[in-house]
Amino acid sequence: MLRRQMSTTVKAINYPQEFVKFLNASHSPYHAVHNIKAHLKEHGFSELNERDAWNGKLSQMGKYFVTRNNSSIIAFAIGGKWSPGNAIAITGAHTDSPTLRIKPLSKRTSEKYTQVGIECYGGGIWHSWFDSDLAIAGRVLVSDKKTGNIISRLVDLKKPLLKIPTLAIHLDREVNQKFEFNKESQLLPVAGLSKEETNTKDKGCDHNEKMSEEQFSSIKSIIERHHERLLELVAEELSIDSVDSIEDFELILYDNNPSCLGGLDDEFVFSGRLDNLTSCFTSMHGLSLAADVNIENESGIRLMACFDHEEIGSASAQGADSNFLPNILERLTSLRCTEDDVTKPLAKSLILESSSKSFFLSSDVAHAVHPNYASKYESQHKPLMGKGPVIKVNANQRYMTNSPGLVLLKKIADKAQVPLQFFVAANDSPCGSTIGPILASKTGIRTVDIGNPILSMHSIRETGGSADIELQIKLFKEFFENYSSLESKIIV
């Protein structure tokens, strides 16, 4: 009965519309994690902190999540029959996307224009950023004058503030043959017309002048490093009395044009950050839908992980190449081990046992076939939007899919009635990679790479299939619910 009710719930939600709302509220990794947290809390998940001991805080049939740097998140539901050493069903995605980020010293002026210094993050299609209306979002560190604490605040200036203008064709007749530009000097956004700003010499930043301990600052003040008007807009958005309360920020640029459904029959999603908020959204819903289904008889754990910094290699404190997931797995597989009970295996062996029984669905978007560049694709592997998730295969292990994993995923997809497709890069074409190889080599957990197909990957504006959103949610829901009963039946 419960299973039938859950299935009805899936159909009742317009997932493409919900996805568009999620995209329009998630203009930075910090906002994405904030919105995932809000969704999980609405579905009964409790927040944990890495700084705390977890002994006594977790229970069978409990639902929890933990964040790191507010840009990565792991959430899980513990089965009613969970025991350390049992299997864990894991989906993995990433919260970051190629973008332009404001530099620590961003104040620029040229030819009476106010400009903002930016840094390229990830492997973006940077020419797609020209002539777009650019807004700014991210997090701001603010000093609380009452407590003396410095707190992190989210900010989203939802208005067109910046523009990277192209050069008129009259001044570059070859622009349509080959559009080339210098990323340091010609990918520089215009923010306004130059105005005289407040003199900041009296703010204790002239290092040639002897200062008291209270006046001394090891780096330039925030007003010296960034345009004062930009800081004022941030302060207004956060209802801060003075820009002096802003200690620092991590701000990114994004296309101010809202995410939306498009196409003759709304078959497309037009948006930035489909890579890879698509998988963050689908795994979030897959887990929240599955978290309570037959959980009392579940012997394993159902877990989703969304990491920052995939677009730059994942080697960070909160990336997939960090100790974030291994640490959480170690905590989960050692909570019930006691030093005085010598009849039980050591905690270290329990994490190894769980890893050997677990499975990781590494989910990142895939390449849909491009109708204007079909020759760039392997002739028999041309994924279509609207036809379901894509299994990604690469003999050189840029993707982790192998036959046992593929068979297991097929069993799950058959049960969920979700069609699957294949992608293999052509032999004369480069092949990207995912967090799959990183975590597979780090943990030894069996892994399959899968993702929804999109066009214009890494552009400021990508295109995905609206029907694929619900299909991937159904697949992940089925994976969480049934992996424990399937894993022991595929013997390698």
TrEMBL record:
Keywords: Aminopeptidase, Hydrolase, Metal-binding, Metalloprotease, Protease, Zinc. Its EC number is 3.4.11.21. InterPro entries: Peptidase_M18, Peptidase_M18_dom2. Pfam families: Peptidase_M18. It comes from Naumovozyma castellii (Yeast). This is aspartyl aminopeptidase. The keyword Metal-binding applies. The keyword Flavoprotein does not apply. Gene3D superfamilies: Aminopeptidase i, Domain 2, Zn peptidases. Belongs to the peptidase M18 family. PANTHER family: ASPARTYL AMINOPEPTIDASE. GO terms for cellular component: fungal-type vacuole lumen. Its cofactor is Zn(2+). GO terms for molecular function: metalloaminopeptidase activity; zinc ion binding. It catalyses: Release of an N-terminal aspartate or glutamate from a peptide, with a preference for aspartate. One of its GO terms (biological process) is proteolysis.
